[in-house]
Design a protein that fits this description.
- The protein has eight helices and five strands, in the order E-H-E-H-H-E-H-H-E-H-H-E-H.
- Helix 2 packs antiparallel against helix 3 and helix 3 packs parallel to helix 5.
- The chain has a five-stranded parallel sheet, sandwiched between helices.
- The protein has one domain: 3-Layer(aba) Sandwich (Rossmann fold), CATH 3.40.50.300.
- It is α/β, with parallel strands linked by helices and about 190 residues long.
- Its EC number is 2.7.4.9.
- Belongs to the thymidylate kinase family.
């Protein structure tokens, strides 16, 4: 089973992934986008720190996704895979600038049509997002602002709906343990865990 954990910046994905790794490290392959491969680490550095065009950014994300899918997802589709970000957020971020159908086709090409089978979206309200962003330095994506990130969050839901990928929406302002409990419930329901 291939599940994606999605959410905008500061939603708590990384925190949840670390908690899940501690519990399921022997049962789930944990990956992330961008930057899971050596190649992807270089791409991540460029995307988040260099001043590049939106089109260049899109193709770098696609290159990272293609590499991760080819080297880690495809050979392990018979296993449990949990990814921190996926094609869902890739399309959600890019559809602010590019046509949805074109993005779907580019991502189908990059992934050989392998999309997550289920998505968990951590959703933040505007006030919580504003507070969390005020507590950190911003990368190039976060510098686009509060309204941009809230739109991306809505886009993630739209992408799941349009691609007909089942998803669960979780309130990311809840406490870490409650969110973790809900995610583990999904894992036990959808993944074959020994």
């Amino acid at each position: 089973m291939y599940i994606a954990l999605e959410g905008i910046d500061t939603a708590g994905k990384s925190t949840q992934i670390e908690l899940l790794k501690n519990e399921y490290k022997n049962n789930i392959l944990f990956i992330k986008e961008p930057g899971f491969t050596k190649f992807g680490t270089k791409i991540r550095e460029i995307i988040f720190n260099d001043d590049i065009s939106k089109k260049a950014e899109l193709f770098l994300f696609l290159a990272d996704r293609a590499e991760t899918i080819e080297k880690f997802v495809k050979p392990n589709l018979h296993k449990n895979i949990l990814t921190d970000r996926s094609v869902i957020s890739g399309i959600a971020y890019a559809m602010e600038f590019f046509d949805f159908n074109m993005l779907v086709n580019l991502n189908k090409f990059a992934t050989d049509g392998i999309f997550p089978e289920f998505v968990i979206i951590l959703k933040l309200d505007k006030e919580t997002l504003q507070y969390r962003l005020s507590q950190k330095n911003h990368d190039n994506i976060e510098k686009r602002g509060l309204d941009y990130l809230i739109n991306i969050q809505d886009n993630m839901i739209e992408v799941c709906n349009r691609l007909e990928i089942p998803y669960l929406l979780l309130d990311a302002s809840k406490n870490i343990e409650e969110i973790n409990f809900r995610i583990k419930k999904v894992i036990s329901e959808y993944m074959d865990i020994d």
